[in-house]
Design brief:
By secondary structure, the protein is an alpha/beta fold. The chain is built from 14 helices and 21 strands. Helix 1 runs parallel beside helix 2 and helix 4 packs across helix 6. It starts with 6 loop residues before the first strand and ends with a helix. Bound molecules: cytidine-5'-triphosphate.
Length: 403
């Protein structure tokens, strides 16, 4: 495994698993990484800063009272290609989730612009506590990678989940990250996500239940593999904060169309996951529409089909992916969309599948590609589904360059 030339900050917090960290630092150095160690004062009770300094060939910095160290936290945060906080105690996890900054590890974490890996270590009951579950969800949603805990003997005498991942597994997680993040380096991508709102009057609109979760997960998965992403996002309460994702917020199908058209000729990958309105009102009333005695008829007109338009002007070297949300004859309709819209892949969602669709954190999709392949994926998290979609895009692009 190679981490040649990679700059890694290792943050150690107070947990018995800290005794494994000299071995971890040694493995990183052996793999070619440059390593800087920062510790909390309670971590220093479990592992010797002198040993860590010797192995990393750099002074391991502990308490905030070390003036030079404290001033360096911004520098270290900028220097690193990756930071790993291991072991991450329940206490530190809570601080990371809430932006508390009362020690050097937390200060470097808040200053870091690089990806951060968190390897929790705690007793089973602490790990399963509702607050810890919530904190894990918060740090994950903030874009950090939580390295799964191991199951086994715990220092408390309990047997269960809560053990810090083994040093070898943590090195593998970092190595995989650096390998994967090079796969789409230099690639520009466009992703659409969320619903669109078509205004009827100043207070009402025609919209749908899409939240934008799936598209955001795709934008993150593309960025994780090194792509620079423009995310054209319809009205969504969700937010995304990632150095490689530029968000353009739009409201209507027309605005989404215009935003896509301005970036499309610069991108090599476009994934259109937005639930775009197919129709909009012919007239948007300037004043609120008043209730009438009889029924109300609203004349609708078709919106521009973004996917079909991009399919028409697609150039060699561009990979175009669309979504199909169907309730019946799923395969037939999805195949037709693949051909009619000149897409390279259609991600088929069936509303008949439990756990799939709007608002939920899971999805179950089938991938239909232009070469006739059909891959039915299991029910999994939207992040995992996004990972599979991006892997398939990489495969399509590789295939294109080899034929
Ligand atoms: N789409 C789009 N612009 C539109 C409508 C849809 O780009 N105005 C895209 C969606 O983002 C999705 C794909 O087209 O990737 C499929 O959308 P869908 O509405 O299911 O397909 P339609 O062709 O509109 O067909 P139908 O509504 O009859 O299923």
């Amino acid at each position: 495994m190679s981490l040649a030339g990679k700059r890694i900050v290792v943050g150690i917090t107070g947990s018995i698993a800290a005794y494994k960290m000299p071995h971890f630092v040694r493995l990183l150095v052996k793999a070619g990484a440059e390593v800087r160690v920062v510790l909390t004062s309670s971590a220093a009770a479990f592992v010797s800063p002198l040993v860590l300094s010797t192995l990393s060939k750099w002074p391991a910095l502990a308490g905030v009272s070390d003036g030079a160290a404290w001033n360096n936290h911004v520098e270290l945060g900028l220097w690193a290609d990756a930071m790993i906080i291991a072991p991450c105690s329940a206490n530190t996890l809570a601080k990371l989730a809430n932006g508390i900054c009362d020690n050097l590890v937390c200060a470097v974490y808040l200053s870091a612009r690089c990806p951060v890996f968190i390897a929790p270590a705690m007793d089973e009951d602490m790990w399963l506590h509702a607050t810890t579950r919530k904190n894990v969800a918060i740090v994950s949603a903030n874009g950090n990678t939580v390295i799964p805990v191991g199951v086994g003997d715990l220092a408390s005498g309990l047997v269960g989940p809560g053990r810090m991942a083994e040093p070898e597994d943590m090195v593998e997680a970092l190595t995989n990250y650096f390998r994967d993040s090079a796969l789409l380096t230099g690639v520009e991508a466009l992703v659409t996500a969320g619903p669109t709102y078509e205004r009827l009057d100043p207070v009402r609109f025609i919209g749908n239940f899409s939240t934008g979760k799936m598209g955001m997960a795709i934008a993150e998965a593309l960025a994780q593999k090194g792509a620079d992403v423009t995310l054209v996002l319809g009205p969504s309460h969700l937010d995304i904060n990632h150095g490689k994702i530029k968000v353009l917020r739009v409201e209507s199908a027309e605005e989404m169309y215009n935003a896509c058209m301005t970036v499309y000729d610069k991108v090599q990958v476009a994934v259109l996951s937005a639930a775009v309105a197919d129709y909009k009102p012919v007239i948007t009333a300037d004043e609120k529409i008043k209730k009438q005695d009889d029924g109300l008829y609203i004349e609708l007109t078709k919106t521009k089909d973004i996917l079909a338009t991009l399919g028409k002007i697609k150039q060699p070297g561009q990979t175009l992916v669309g979504f199909a949300l169907e309730t019946r004859q799923e395969m037939e309709y999805a195949q037709k969309k693949l051909v009619d819209k000149n897409a390279d892949m259609i991600v088929l969602n069936s509303l008949r599948d439990e756990g799939a669709g709007f608002g939920v954190d899971t999805n179950k999709v089938t991938l239909l590609t232009r070469n006739g392949a059909i891959k039915a994926l299991p029910l999994q998290s939207k992040a995992a589904v996004a990972g599979c979609i991006v892997d398939e895009i990489i495969e399509l692009r590789n295939h294109e360059t080899t034929v």
